[in-house]
TrEMBL record:
Pathway: Glycan metabolism; pectin biosynthesis
EC assignment: 2.4.1.-
InterPro entries according to UniProt: Glyco_trans_8, Glycosyltrans_8_dom-fam, Nucleotide-diphossugar_trans
UniProt-listed Pfam families: Glyco_transf_8
Membrane topology: Single-pass type II membrane protein
Alphabetical list of Gene3D superfamilies matching this protein: Spore Coat Polysaccharide Biosynthesis Protein SpsA, Chain A (3.90.550.10)
Subcellular location(s) per record: Endomembrane system
Organism: Stephania yunnanensis
UniProt keyword Ligase, yes or no: no
Phylogenetic lineage: Eukaryota, Viridiplantae, Streptophyta, Embryophyta, Tracheophyta
UniProt protein name: Hexosyltransferase
GO molecular function, one term: glycosyltransferase activity
Tagged with keyword Transferase: yes
Length: 357
């Protein structure tokens, strides 16, 4: 493809992206959120030397505490999923024995209004320790091969690939979480998941899922590609809940490895979905296990028919509305699934005032 054509194409993506971002942002500006209660450490929490870092200027991370007593949580933050993120944050604080020892790291698109997101967060969580990190969404657009729609859906979906290069170098361990979930247990337990001698990440594994189906026949019929799984037993895992060792990730240059598979996907179709399969290609079979209670996923429902899903058997520490349906949208539409009632108490959105009367 001639270079100028490529640029033109990319410019087109960017322009559309900005238009969509501006529209979504205008919609989010109408959202008003309540202030969450303040949460305090219980007496036996390890002391936390940090002051509240919430007054930092925009993207500063200088007061991040790289102490073992701090649980580090990374999430993306954008106007579209803000309501979900706010509920997730509230649930994390509420179920934590040491809520003052949690540092939040929010990845935002550089196309969004970081200052406004910061103000909104700080208004609802005046005591939250957090930093914002702008992610150059244009950098990933060139690697996304799929339809323009899914690229526009969210370049931030790909931000998790870049966490080790966005977060401060002194951070060793981070819990990455999607924005459509709730914790109902102490995140410190999840963060303490053993990674063993060499695993880079930990996540609940699903070895009964049909792993073959995540990749195309083109992939499986080409030994040069499929042999990547030759020396491991790969299982599906969901990338919405992960404990990541950032030092090991950086040392192993895993961001580049994921990007190499994305480059290949641009030339030949080796998988169907967007951001998940490259993670499976690089990590599946080599991750540390996490109990399934930490990702009760699929509550967004059936992607084809919009059916409600029930919990999987067993205990629950984290509820994940992965899939197409989101609890806030179904509650607003007065068509909630039964489990959406569990999400509602964490909703910080103020009911809208009627504009005309
Ligand atoms: C798994 O998926 C592949 C491809 O989609 C299919 O051919 C195969 O029959 C499936 N295997 C099982 C056990 O369902």
């Amino acid at each position: 493809m001639p270079l100028h054509h490529h640029h033109h194409h990319q410019y087109h993506h960017l322009l559309l992206l900005h238009l969509v971002a501006a529209t979504v942002f205008a919609a989010a500006a109408h959202q008003q959120f309540r202030e969450a209660p303040q949460f305090y450490n219980s007496p036996d929490c390890p002391p936390n030397i940090a002051n509240n870092n919430n007054g930092d200027d925009h993207y500063s991370t200088s007061s991040t505490v790289c102490s073992d007593h701090v649980v580090h949580v990374a999430m993306t933050l954008d106007a579209t999923y803000l309501r979900g993120s706010m509920a997730a944050i509230l649930s994390i604080l509420q179920h934590s024995a040491c809520p003052e020892n949690i540092d939040f790291h929010f990845i935002t698109s550089d196309a969004s209004d970081g200052a406004s997101l910061r103000r909104t967060l700080a208004a609802s969580f005046p005591y939250l320790r957090f930093s914002l990190y702008p992610f150059r969404s244009s950098s990933v657009l060139g690697l996304i091969s799929t339809s323009i729609r899914s690229a526009l859906d969210c370049p931030l979906n790909y931000a998790r690939n870049y966490l080790p290069h966005l977060l401060p170098l002194c951070l060793r361990r981070v819990v990455y979480l999607d924005s459509d979930l709730l914790l109902v247990d102490d995140i410190a337990k999840l963060s303490a998941t053993p990674l063993g001698p060499s695993s880079v990440l930990a996540a609940p594994e699903y070895c009964n899922a049909n792993f073959t189906s995540y990749f195309t026949p083109t992939f499986w019929s080409n030994p040069a590609l499929s042999l990547t799984f030759a020396d491991r037993r790969p299982c599906y895992f969901n990338t919405g809940v992960m404990v990541i060792d950032l030092h090991r990730w950086r040392a192993g240059r895993y961001t580049s490895k994921i990007e190499e598979w994305m480059e290949l996907q641009k030339r030949m179709r080796i998988y169907e979905l967007g951001s998940l399969p490259p993670f499976l290609l690089v990590f599946a079979g080599n991750i540390a296990p996490v109990d399934h209670r930490w990702n009760q996923h699929g509550l967004g429902g059936d992607n084809f028919r919009g059916l409600c899903r029930d919990l999987h058997p067993g205990p629950v520490s984290l509820l994940h509305w992965s899939g197409k349906g989101k609890p806030w949208a179904r509650l607003d539409a007065n068509r909630p699934c039964p489990l959406d009632a569990l999400w509602a108490p964490y909703d910080l959105l103020r009911p809208p005032f009627p504009l005309d009367s």
